[in-house]
Amino acid sequence: MSRYDWNDERHALGVATMDATHREFLELARAIESGPPAEFATRFEGLVEHTRAHFAAEEALMRETACPSLREHEADHARVLGDLGRFLQSVAKGRPAMARAYIASGLSEWFDLHVATMDAQLAAHLNARQHAG
Ligand SMILES: [Fe+2]
Ligand SMILES: [Fe+2]
């Protein structure tokens, strides 16, 4: 069991592309947690890259569909990417302790809350549009 295990109740949003990306995110985070220290820097960088693409895709979807929560949602993405970028710089300098601590708790807490609030809002917006035809 890992805090990064997929959980239908907590994570499933019913939008296939978002769910697939979130599953990948969790898998990457889990691989960092359980992986050898020698792999940490490479895997952490991979997670940051994946997260950049994940956020950019959601933001593009919000723009295309005029999602009302765009600005708030983008701001949360930007804050987390800022944190990840700073951790990545420390990792590159041979100081992975902060990044490790973040993976061990903060990132998981952020992800679950973000999915339950902002990503859930986006999914509801997309599903409502689809059903509106
Ligand atoms: Fe997301
Ligand atoms: Fe998001």
Description:
This protein is mostly helical. It has one domain: Four Helix Bundle (Hemerythrin (Met), subunit A) (Up-down Bundle). Helix 2 runs antiparallel to helix 5. One fe (ii) ion binds next to helix 4 and helix 5.
Helical content stands at over 70%
CATH architecture: Up-down Bundle
Global morphology = globular
CATH structural fold name? Four Helix Bundle (Hemerythrin (Met), subunit A)
What is the total number of structural domains? 1
Sum this structure up briefly:
Helices cover 80% and strands 0% of the residues.
Walk me through the topology:
Layout: H1 8-11, H2 16-34, H3 40-64, H4 70-92, H5 97-132
Helix pairs in contact: 2-3, 2-5, 3-4, 4-5
The structure holds fe (ii) ion (2 copies).
Using brief descriptors, characterize the structure shown.
metal ion binding; iron; mainly alpha; single chain; binds fe (ii) ion; Hemerythrin-like_sf; Hemerythrin-like; 133 residues; Four Helix Bundle (Hemerythrin (Met), subunit A)
